[in-house]
Amino acid sequence: MGDHEFDVTGTRTVYDGAIITLRVDDVAMPGGRIAEREVVEHFGAVAILARDENGRIAMVRQYRHPIGRRLLELPAGLLDQDGEAPLTAAQRELAEEADLAADTWHVLVDLALSPGFTDEALRLYLAEDLHHLDEAERVDEEADLEVEWVSLDDAVAMVLAGEIVNATSVAGILAASTAERTGSRLRGVDAPWTDEPTALRGRRRRP
What is the pTM of this model? Predict the structure, then answer.
């Protein structure tokens, strides 16, 4: 394991948008060179693999503009509400996107989504003991959203067939399948989240 400290000697903001900020850091490399590293700051997010008593998981099919088509995904959303805890955000997103609530929650997996250029990270929960809620009001892309129930085995097959490609959903489905097969013990909802993003939320709080 290396012991070099990658100290930041300078930083500047290049772009500050609605859901991301792009900054450029000057970082001390081994050997003394200073290199520029672009970093996309992101709010971070949560996602939910909600499984019913029959082993089916709730998925949503929604339009994703950057790739120009609808994807089948697990319910998910940004940590963009000031002071909202990740579990609270997950409970809110499950209600807003799938009209569901759950009595039992565990941490399924934590993801650093593309650490080569962004601090975006996501905590994915397993939600069980489900009950249905009244239909939520949805706007924009979510107004076109459809909820679909898929067995876990079918979801794994769809991942391997390239029919489910959203990275968060792929990771959650395969993690849930592995945990079920191996009997692995999942973490509690208070488990530390080492890579939870804080930079963009802290930036938004500053006057």
Answer: 0.93
